[in-house]
Amino acid sequence: MAFKLKRSSVASTLSLTPLIDVVFLLLIFFLVTSEFEDEERRLDIVLPSATSAVPMISKPREVVVDIDSAGDIFLGGKLTALADLQQLLEKAVADNPTSQTVVIRADRQAAFQPVVSVMDVCNRTGVGDYSVTTQEGPDG
């Protein structure tokens, strides 16, 4: 006994209404959550001026301080005194106040006092992001 199934015409057509509804909901979502550049400039405001306002003139870069086994401090391959290092870091912090970093590379035979002195100079000049580099692996 064979049964014949009748297919209705409703099942054979694809309803696009739910798909269109979803697309419109996504469009509305992205329009509502997007921020536009002109949003800040809606009001006609004259910004105040400052005589000490200086734009960021140099790309933030890390300052590398080397300390050799004798405890001498080098900056860019040149022997540098702590006072000169402090002046240079003050200028670097003035150019990039939020993102200035210092990397301290000390020889393993160096005394700890020069490293602490460089850290102290970093703290006095406002450099909070400084690090002491080490070599990876067991002591050989």
Automatic annotation (TrEMBL):
GO biological process, one term: protein transport
Record carries keyword Transport: yes
Coiled coil: none
The protein, known as: Biopolymer transport protein ExbD
Organism: Rubripirellula amarantea
Alphabetic keyword roster: Cell membrane, Membrane, Protein transport, Transmembrane, Transmembrane helix, Transport
Topology within the bilayer: Single-pass membrane protein; Single-pass type II membrane protein
A GO term, aspect molecular function: transmembrane transporter activity
Chain segments annotated as transmembrane: 12-32
Keyword match Protein transport: yes
Main location, first listed in the record: membrane
Localization annotation: Cell membrane
InterPro entries: ExbD
Family under the similarity heading: Belongs to the ExbD/TolR family.
GO cellular component annotations of the record: plasma membrane
